[in-house]
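To assess whether the prediction recovers the assembly geometry, we first specified each molecular entity separately, as shown.
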Amino acid sequence: MRYFLHLAYDGTLYHGWQVQPNTLTVQREVERCLSQVLRQPISTLGSGRTDTGVHASHQVIHFDAELPAGLEEATVVYRLNRALPPGIATRLLHEVPPRAHARFDAEARTYEYHVRTVPDPFSVAHSLYLDRHPDVEAMNEAAASMIGSFDFTSFSKVKGGENHYVCTCYEAGWHEEPGGLVFRIRANRFVRGMVRLVVGTLLAVGRGKITAAEFKAILLAQSRVDAGSAAPAQGLFLSRVEYPEGLVPEAAAPTGMPYFAGRPR
Amino acid sequence: MRYFLHLAYDGTLYHGWQVQPNTLTVQREVERCLSQVLRQPISTLGSGRTDTGVHASHQVIHFDAELPAGLEEATVVYRLNRALPPGIATRLLHEVPPRAHARFDAEARTYEYHVRTVPDPFSVAHSLYLDRHPDVEAMNEAAASMIGSFDFTSFSKVKGGENHYVCTCYEAGWHEEPGGLVFRIRANRFVRGMVRLVVGTLLAVGRGKITAAEFKAILLAQSRVDAGSAAPAQGLFLSRVEYPEGLVPEAAAPTGMPYFAGRPR
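The predicted structure of the complete assembly is given in tokenized form:
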């Protein structure tokens, strides 16, 4: 049987999602605990990688397993949460068709980047602090230039490893919230390092270092050299992964779930 | 001139509020940064101690200083936030009459204890996780028995160091919030370790280990031996310190301030 598992994790302590030799990654911990709870070796595949220090308030992975007879999915979730380290949690496990794929079937992903403009000692690990309020209008004018299909080479971390750099961006904008701002970007796919480079460059717009028109020119240049520096990992959350209707139960939607929120409430 | 400074801090990294030899405390960091920003040695006095690992979303301290000519209070706040480590922040500095006292003039203090009943990887450092939902009604029945003036010897950490154990409790109760619960207790004063022992014992009521009537009997016994074990420090926040009208500006009220909230929003 194939299963989807819905996860949230604090990236602070982990070298990203993906298993790498001799490093502590979220995938390593999840596979270790799944294998322990299900009493069989489990390999997982995530909807996408998150880099070192990046959080996920909603990550979806798949794996194949035979659940021991009589063991309900909700019981697996409960036992898994007891086994997992405190910075990783799961809320939902459900069976999917045998060829369902956490990565290839994902239709859209949403990332959020959290900025504080009022010093907040409790969100240090989960946001970027700016001591001046950025120009949100200018940042949103720049962000709007990404809506549609564009080659994001300018905002990719490295050449290589990707077939192409075209992403279709459905939503990109900043929203005020008490004491800070959240940037939300929803697209069919993301290239490596994209959100942190986009946010870093938008923050340069917000500080008045470059204009919204210059941001658009950087995007259209398809050249990595002009983008700003990457925003730090601690403000970034993978916050939603969407699948075709019917593949994932309604209950998986992150709306209103406290640990699926971009930041704790 | 005497000043009140309003602070918030994440207690995770600190051995409580009060300066002790050879340990990292919040007071030590605040005095170091105040002395640096004001260019004179500064000694502070807090409204009360917080123990190792306990947070404050609103702590008030006083100190005496001559502000350099032309240096505005808001500028001191700005510079102080730049100097302070990320887990400590200030929002307000204001002059008070020369004999105003952060501890003796405080009329009420409020503590909050945060519990999660849904696993939340982002609030591990700021809450206690319970994997079963406690009986809130029973806990609130027990909590109500503390309203009024009682000798809290049963819920004090150690005998000694206090003149008396009588506290007048104005509010004590649990409130549901998404994914968890908050216990709020407001009193004229607290004895050492009181909130953690009260919460630990209330959680025993919530698990059905003791009844609300037994909780009340423990309180009235004025004996430390019967109380439950102390709830862990990481869920506890000093969340408000109140003074007589006029001593503290309206702006100091924690309502709606993101980092004055018991937990990050």
